[in-house]
Amino acid sequence: MVLDRASDIVTAATTSNDALLSKLSALRAGYLVDPALRAIHTKPSLPRKDPMINRGTWFRFTYIEQMAVAFAAKYNGNCAIVNIGAGLDTLYWRLQLTAQQEKKEGKQSYFHVKHWIEIDLPSITELKAKKFDLTHGEIINMPVSEDTTIRPFQDPQVILYRPKQEHTETVPEALRVELPGYRLYAANLEMRKTWMPMVRDIVANDKGDATLPVLFLSEVCLSYLDADTTIGIIKDLPTYFNSFGIVCFEMVNPSDSFGEMMQINMAERQVVMPSFVELGFTAQYRKIFQLNGYEDSYAREAGDVYRSFWPARRREIEQLELFDEFEQWNLIMGHYACIMGWSGVTNLEEMLNSIGQDTESPDAPDK
Predict the structure, then answer these.
(1) Nearest 5°: CA angle at 195, between 240 and 337?
(2) What are the transmembrane regions (predicted)?
(3) Is residue 176 part of a domain?
């Protein structure tokens, strides 16, 4: 069976809830429009967080979202997106709600992909299936390799959840949207010799070649994994996929005073962050990508990326809640990073730099 360690359960539950509350606060303050997110939060009121947290949440959310949108557009939907450590993320629901509206309006270009796959621990996926009205979990037995170097990293079972064909009228409309190609798997990310071949088989063509472009997303997931697992995921992706990229938003700079405070605060909540502590430096991530044969990589602190990200939209966002604690803001944004590696697909750095450029006015330069 797919089992969670006690530390995995605490970390996954805590961080998933943290992300949910941060996004709900940003939703309340007008940073996000997300009917599915509001639908799964059954309490009448929304949480309120500091404006700096709201602004940072907008950037984190929008960076991941727009990279997924740009990747799908680049390949005209003939691609797959895999969200690892997806938690209670609503991104695919949000994108499909928008696409559904655009199709009704007769637009020819709208978001679509062949496969959207999410992976997380059983304790999280079971909760997500209930909140999002997915099917009951189906246990799938995976073949176990005879290779003794692989078996320790393999779990013979995963649990699959799919969208329901029909929903009752009590299910909110935002959760009844069609989800083509969607699969939610309960699997421990440490067992990469199980879930990577599984994903490869889903995206492979009739000849068994995994040539379909695949984009992996990690929204502060790798930071909480064992360092060996994070390195192993980066190392093994080129083994299973020919054309792929990985887009991450992760914690960095653990060794300064602010980074040490982050560790203490999370430890008090019984949350462990091994990869943040051992690998959490932009140069270290670039080195790992380089050592494992990636065509190219990118790793910059979030504050640096934010300052040039989607200027027109960023200026609008900055007017929602004004603050002048810029030293604290820079500290926070200096302890997260946008990290990407890719092989056989379009240059992801160029894709990031192009976000929002088609909406920019040449008469309104960024200040």
Answers:
(1) 80
(2) none
(3) no
Q: Note whether residue 138 is domain-resident.
A: no
Alpha-carbon distance of 283 to 274, in angstroms, equals 17
What's at 105, amino acid-wise? E
The two three-digit tokens of residue 156, written as one number: 């013979």
Domain with residue 28: its CATH number is 3.40.50.150
Which pair of structure tokens corresponds to residue 81? 């997106």
Say how far apart CA 174 and CA 131 lie, in whole Å: 12
Residue ranges for the binding site?
60, 85, 188-189, 219
Asked if pLDDT for residue 318 goes beyond 80, the answer is yes
Per-residue pLDDT for 110 more than 70?
yes
Cα–Cα distance, 254 to 258 (Å, whole number)? 8
Summary count for the chain: helices (H), strands (E): 14, 9
Query: Which two three-digit tokens encode residue 133?
Result: 């009205």
Residue 125 within a domain: no
Residue that the structure tokens 């170097």 belong to: 149
- State yes or no: pLDDT of 307 exceeds 60: yes
Angle separating helix axes 91-104 and 51-74, nearest 10 degrees: 60
Number of domains in the chain: 1
Round the CA-based radius of gyration of the chain to a whole number and report it.
20
Q: What percent of the chain has pLDDT over 90?
A: 82
Annotated binding site for S-adenosyl-L-methionine: 60, 85, 188-189, 219
197 domain residue, yes or no: no
pLDDT at position 152: 54
Of 149-158, 244-253, 299-308, the least confident: 149-158
Amino acid at 2: V
The span from the CA of 54 to the CA of 113, in Å, is 29
Please provide the DSSP assignment of 23-75 as one string: HHHHHHTTS---HHHHHH--SSS-----HHHHHHHHHHHHHHHHHHHHHHHHT
